[in-house]
Fold this sequence. Notes:
The protein is an all-alpha fold. The termini are far apart. The chain has helices spanning 2-8, 12-21, 25-44, 48-58, 64-80, 84-97, 109-119, 123-134, 141-157, 161-174, 179-195. The chain has eleven helices and no strands.
Amino acid sequence: LIVSSFIHQQDYKGALDYLKKKKTKENLALQSEVSLYRGIQLFNEQKLQKSLPYFSNAKTSNDSEIKVKANYWEAETLYELKKYSEALNKFKSTKKMINATNSAEYYLIDYNIGYTHFKLKEYENAITYFNQFLNTYFDDESIKDDTYIRLGDNYFATRNYTNAIKNYKNVVDKNSAESDYAQYQMGMSYGFKNQN
C-alpha cells in the first residue's frame, strides 16, 4: 500500500528507498519494476547517464516483460548518449526478446536498429532494417516519411542513386513536411547519376 502511494505520486525514488529498507521477496520483485519506472523518469528528464543503472537493475527482474522494457530503454539511452555500438547490441537483443504478445509495443525496433546502423555509417545494414520497418504495418506517416528519407540517404551514401531517388520521390509526391529536403537530395542524386 505504501509503495502504491509512492508510485501513484510518481515518486519512484521514494518507492525504491522504501523497498530497499523492507527487504521481502515481494519487495525485491517490485524493486525491479520500480527501477524501470525510475529509469524512464530520469530518461524523460534528460538525465541519461543517471538512468542507466536503473535499467540494469530492472533487467534482473524475473518478469520477462520488465526485462524487455529495461533492455529497450537501455538501448534508447545509449543511443541518446551517442554510444551507437552499445545501443545497437541492446536493440538487437531486445528484438530477440520480443514475442507475439508484446511485439506491437516495440513496432519501432527495426526503425531504431536502422537509425543506429546509419549513425555507425553501416549503410547496407541500415537499408535492410529500414526496409523491414516499412514492410510492417504502421500508421504514422511522419515516421514513414522519415524512413523513406533515411533510406534515400543510405542509398545516396552507397552511390545507389536510382534507389535514392525512388525513396526521396515517395516523400516529394506526398508533399510532406520533409519534401523540400527530399527534393534537394533528388536533385543531387540526379546530378551524380548523370555524372556516372
